[in-house]
Amino acid sequence: MSRTHLFTSESVSEGHPDKIADQISD
Fold this sequence. Notes:
This protein is about 85% helix and about 0% strand. It has helices at about 1-15, 15-25. The mean pLDDT is about 60.
């Protein structure tokens, strides 16, 4: 879970948190 959170945090920096979070949720 920690790894996923880190990945999402990195995505937020890029400006694609929703898209990545959606893929993780799926």
